[in-house]
Amino acid sequence: MRVCLTGAGGFIASHIAKRLMAEGHYVIGADWKENEHFKAEEFCNEFKLLDLRTLENCKEAVDGCDWVFNLAADMGGMGFISSNNSVLMYNNTMISINILEAARSKNVKRVYYSSSACIYPEHIQLDPNNPGLKEDTAWPAAPQDGYGLEKLYAEEMYISYGKELGIETRIGRFHNIYGPVKMLLLRSLLASFSHVPFPRLPLAHTISLLSVLLLTTSPAPSFPVRHLVRRARKGPRCLLQKGRGGCA
Length: 248
Description:
The chain is α/β, with parallel strands linked by helices. It has two domains: 2-174, Rossmann fold; 180-239, no CATH class. 46% of the residues lie in helices and 13% in strands. It has helices at residues 11-22, 40-43, 55-62, 78-83, 85-105, 122-125, 146-164, 180-193, 203-213, 225-234, 236-239, and strands spanning 2-6, 26-31, 46-49, 67-70, 110-116, 168-174. Strands 3-2-1-4-5-6 form a six-stranded parallel β-sheet, sandwiched between helices. Strand 2 (26-31), helix 2 and strand 3 (46-49) form a beta-alpha-beta unit. The longest helix has 21 residues, at 85-105. It starts with a strand and ends in a 9-residue tail after the last helix.
């Protein structure tokens, strides 16, 4: 198959591209920035440096492809996406729309769209009873920010194209994604905190950092999330004790 990976300058798309190329597919990577972790030839047969906010560039990226994996998005950490709604909503709306329309116009058989856990209602995500995030809880919509709202609308657009225009679409809602390179960075980050006072962060930042630190424990802690949050506030060493006393 001839496959296009948008967002190939990023961590997730480049790893998918590397896997697809290893399986014998002809892989085209497209992004407005080059990859920081791999040389292009390590994960794709062609790399196209394109601004995917424009339809013509999207058509160039997907031309002749059987499949498209759309992982391109303008985003960053939670602080960034919560304070740059106007920029993110414009950029990501244009990318989502134009990749899909380009795929349709170029007779692409299948399109995968990378959505986000940010589409889920904020009150469910903040519920201390942790009811869980289920597909059918996405509507009625009440996402936590503009980034999540754009992703939710784009999901509906991809579903509609699939129903009405004969293009096969698939959607995945990403939560936190980690891999070998990032795990090394996270372990270094953890080590750097081991001899300095741990900052007392706002709850949202604590939970965000907690999601990072949890990946450095093996096996994962078994105690409730509220205990993990309390331990995270006390510091990484405390979190890593995994319930063996001293930091409860």
